[in-house]
Amino acid sequence: MTQVTQITCFGADSLLGVARENLLFSWLLASERRNVVQRQYRLQLALDTAFDELQFDSGWVLSDQSVNVPLSAFIPLSRTRYYFRVRVIDDAQQESAWSPAGWFETALQHAHEWKADWITPDRDDEPAESVYLLRRLFTAGKKVASARLYSSALGVYRLYLNGSPVGDDLFSPGWTSYDDHIQFQSADVTSLLVPGDNALGAMLGEGWFKGELTWLKKRELYGRRKALLAQLHLLFEDGEECLIVTDGEWRCCNGPILDSGFYAGETYDARREDPCWCSAHSAAEWQPVTVMGKQRYRLVPQISEPVRVTQTLTPVAFIRTDDGVIVDMGQNMVGRIRLRAELEEGQTITLRHAEVLDTSGKLYTDNLRNARQTVTYTARGGSAEYAPYFSFQGFRYVEITGLSHLNDESLSGAICGEVLHTDMMRTGEFSCSNPAINRLFDNIVWGQRGNFVDVPTDCPQRDERLGWTGDAQIFIRTAAYNYDVRRFFRKWLLSVAADQKPNGSVPVVVPNVLLDYISKIWGDETYTSSGWGDAAVICPWTVYQFYGDRQLLAEQYSSMKAWVNYIHSRGDDPWLWNTDFQFGDWLALDAEPDSYFGATPVYLVATAFYALSTRIVRDAAAALNLRSDERKYRLWHENIVAAFRRTFMREGEMIADTQTAHILPLAFGLLEGADRVNVAARLNQLVVEQDYHLTTGFLGTPWLCVALSENGYHDTAVKLACQESYPSWLFSVSQGATTVWEHWDGIKPDGSFWSENMNSFNHYAYGAIGEWFYRFVAGIDFAPDSVACGDIIFRPDLSGGSFTSAAASYRSVRGIIAIRWERHEEHARLWLTVPANARAVLRLADAQWSVLVDESDRKIRSLEDVGGAPGIALGSGEYHFSLGRQKGITVE
Ligand code: BGC
User: Fold this and answer.
1) Whether the predicted model's global pTM rises above the 0.90 cut
2) What one-character-per-residue DSSP string does 76-117 give?
3) Residues 812-827: pLDDT tens digits?
4) Residues 47 and 118 in one domain
5) Which one of 451, 457, 458, 595 would you pick to mutate in the ligand 1 pocket, going by the greatest count of ligand atoms within 8 A of its CB?
């Protein structure tokens, strides 16, 4: 019997504060039967859990859609909780029971519903503190039935009600292109209210809005004054409602945080703590705030999951030095140290954070450039507990001064590392028979965690931590396997579109805090580069492919199109991008000495990406039923491909003999027939000539193994991936890396470092090989036109290369997709899971495995022609196959 095991709205089964356009419902089906397909669904919305007060009933809808079903005709009320449920009829005409109910609650939906004013503690006539406390006292005279708090800030903030923190989100309201929109947060604070006197408090810091950003040390990029906006709705049991809002009644004062910045760290003096600050008993000197009024900011309900602490690490070693003690967390992590200790009054503890130690065992901080990453805590005496409020660091090692008197055991109890990042759901797991590859895979996941801190950043430690668009598009496919990044990218892409220039150019960082820096330094009028601006096209399309979010595609479509139109307007031939500054294959090893620019001609790279983005816009137009656009971009794509071949090939060979020049046309489908075969053969040769080493940079690397595996050179891809000597992915692993490095030789074989001006040890870009592990080693891949993971391709690597077993699972929007295989001399075993309402094809690259037995009925299955290639078509269900090499040999 088919059942609906879960229903979610915008990826969550309970969601407080959702925007109307994100009311998209998805559900998971489960059945003991194989080949289950949904034929009809019925979706309901009600005001109560019993579904008596029905608000919406779709009736039976003939449709197999189980992912992102919109409620087109339904207009929800503001600040209202709705319960939702669904039931389905499957292909056997069986009707399921109702799913368990989920709920969502709308937030304020219209500007006029905001009664609160923005208030600021910053004054024009005196320098502002970097963090203030703000507070409002109020009386709840009657019993409160429910209370909701809607709030935001120009800066970063934390709210407290009667001294208790409201929620566990960090760095709210998050980083968006503030001039276009700012997120607000919604919280259910009913349980924090007390009868009688109450106090609503806030800590307000500078954050991205006002604090220091970029290596150019820019401050106040979005405005001069930090500000708070809060609106508390109290609903009393007698039905009366009352509002507490930010207004002239609020008071502010300095708190214990003397200074706080993302790069700098935090300085905290506990002697300035007032434990009663968020109550009526506070002894602090409270000052009036300035009311700034309604302001022009466009407020949108929180889109992505918030940043939270997701894991706690304990130190693995202590290294005693003359300056104190260096604590080794065992993992290059992003977050903060929490300190818990008995301290004397006035005792100061300093924590300096770094990713690596130098050859003499000292903290290496040169690569942090201007980021101090230093936290200073002064105690008030007695039990102390502290972790920075508005700062995070990228580190594995922490040098602590002031605690050297503690022995290792006491230190271990006093220090823990709190890992923080956008709290996305983990969706992908991978492991294989090669332990070094497993460590690399873990490093890739850690790189994602450390750099998905509200926006996709290049690195989390130095004075950068910016939303580099190139890095995001390079990594997004791996990211989408590892974690559910749908909401994370939906949020960021709104800023991408907002920061796009009127001519369609997409800045190299979003939110664009470099403004026109790129134009000035490279002396042209563009703000962009190919491979970076293409994020505006590649990212929404990838989100659509993984999650089937058509809404997002529709919303980003004009930005996607504008980017391709922009490129079209740049070249002196409309089908080439052969002008303007280009990063090209950034940091490739075939660069001239001391250059960051790889040897692959930058206009070859630019035109290849032009073709890729145009093809995606064509496909997006088709998905959105925009027929004339589809025709237009089809034609454009054909012209670009022809111009690419004409310009960058001679007699069937690429004009540039670099690995990347061969990778991109193969990976982007720019070649056909003999050309494809020749170029693939040459790519293989180029890798073999380097004794199975890569020479690629940012743009070639992500596609290198994919291009080889897809074109008959999978063995070479495997040798490259398993290569341990420099340069290779595993070189950093052999050097003890726990995250992916920015440079193949961030630490050189002799222990010295790459130049300090750009040497991050936590850069996810080269971690883009993660996608290849899922697709071509364990073997969870998708058909090129698959939407929402509906068309799975299993391609286990049973070829006899270095892997003898592998496993991967992916929690798709349709349910779990899983594969596990083990290869022995004469037989192999394979386990597969296909979720309901999806279909799969099993492809076996190695023709030797000609006998396949389905262990459920011991019947032999043979490879058939599926879509023009040998394979086995599978519907949903669990499968266990035994494989033998040739007929006549018994498979166990
Ligand atoms: C960043 C990169 C980025 C690059 C652009 C660097 O400083 O860390 O990851 O994409 O600049 O060239």
Assistant:
1) yes
2) PPTT-EEEEEEEEEETT-PBPPPPPPEEEEE---SGGG----
3) 999 999 999 999 988 9
4) no
5) 458
